[in-house]
Design a protein that fits this description.
five-stranded antiparallel sheet, 15 strands, alpha/beta, about 30% helix, globular, about 20% strand
Length: about 350
């Protein structure tokens, strides 16, 4: 057995009920309470959910009852102001994402200060696996250096522990990587799969960069499909712990992260409620079966989402993790479901 998942202790502290009860039972009870609060908040404050949840019994008796509520889609988010549950003056950050729909209108996600602090807390807990106080973190994610972006949230989360956080050039050219590693001297690096693969190739051609990369304690991939062979190559080349993170802007950037066992992504159980559905019928699927990931946000203040269809193809893994965690784990994202005419296909 590997070390226990760091998220479990955090989740346990925030759960309802005595610690003597099994953690999965406490998580489900807390999720149900938070889900009821989310539905009440959204149905009274969001114009969109006032319409779509009208007439629904929102005092759900179990988490399974969530499946009878309507979905939220990417197209719905184009009318983002209909989702707001707080005044625009209380919005801390708005993120605009382009979509591929016929109207060409973007979707927007709004976050309050509270929402962003919840994400920063998740980052602080999850990053304990990869970095220690007094060390340095280099962030190579595209767009991460915007105000209240991922780099800023990581800085807010990790600076109190004496961890230095710096953004780098997401272009990840051999020249920019050499400059960023010389400037930051990172102990851990975060990037998308493209940035980490570029680092792997550049280090193979540059002895100085290779020596700097071999100082890495850890590497975290986020924002794309992290192929197992690439993850293994990076771990081997730099002799460091390499983990994958799953998150969407819609999930508040953070969603789930691997532990060193690398047997799926341990989830932000009290912030993100995950369902897996049949992409054609919309029916819930059992653990272990691949389908479309549906997200319901919990404890979200500015713009909660109820049964949001992400399009991502994944599964919830059965059984406990080798690390000992008994909680849900998300399997690898295998691609996206897209509609082609009257057919839904999986695009890898």
């Amino acid at each position: 057995m590997t070390s226990p998942c760091v998220l479990d202790a955090w989740i346990s502290r925030e759960c309802d009920g005595p610690e003597a009860l099994p953690l999965p039972d406490r998580v489900r009870a807390t999720q149900l309470r938070l889900l009821r609060q989310t539905l009440a908040w959204a149905a009274t404050r969001s114009r969109f959910y006032k319409r779509t949840l009208a007439g629904q019994n929102l005092q759900l008796r179990s988490l399974a009852d969530l499946a009878r509520l309507p979905f939220t889609t990417v197209e719905d988010l184009r009318r983002w102001q209909d989702f707001l549950c707080i005044s625009q003056g209380d919005v801390q950050r708005i993120v605009t994402l382009q979509t591929s729909g016929s109207t060409g209108m973007p979707k927007r996600l709004a976050f309050s200060e509270h929402d962003l602090k919840r994400t920063a807390l998740f980052f602080a807990v999850g990053m304990r696996q990869l970095i220690e106080p007094g060390q340095s973190l280099l962030v190579l994610l595209p767009g991460a250096d915007r105000p209240d972006g991922v780099t800023d949230l990581l800085r807010q989360a990790l600076s109190p522990a004496g961890i230095h956080v710096e953004g780098g050039n997401p272009a990840a050219t051999p020249e920019s990587l050499r400059d960023d590693f010389a400037r930051v001297r990172p102990d851990t690096v975060i990037g998308g799969p493209e940035q980490l693969e570029a680092l792997l190739h550049a280090a193979a051609q540059d002895a100085t960069l290779h020596a700097a990369a071999c100082r890495l304690r850890g590497a975290l991939s986020s924002g794309g499909v992290f192929r197992p062979e690439l993850q293994g190559s990076i771990s081997t080349a730099f002799s460091c712990l390499t983990l994958d993170h799953y998150g969407l802007t819609e999930s508040g950037f953070g969603g789930g992260v691997q532990c060193p066992a690398r047997e799926g992504h341990h989830l932000r159980e009290l912030d993100c409620l995950i369902e897996i559905i049949d992409p054609v019928t919309g029916a819930p699927l059992p653990e272990g079966q691949v389908g479309e990931l549906v997200l319901t946000t919990l404890q979200r203040e500015a713009m909660p989402l109820v049964r949001y269809r992400t399009g991502d193809a994944a599964s919830l893994l059965p059984g406990p993790c080798t690390c000992g965690s008994p909680l849900h784990r998300l399997g690898p994202v295998l691609g996206r479901y897209v509609r082609e005419g009257d057919t839904i296909v999986l695009r890898v």
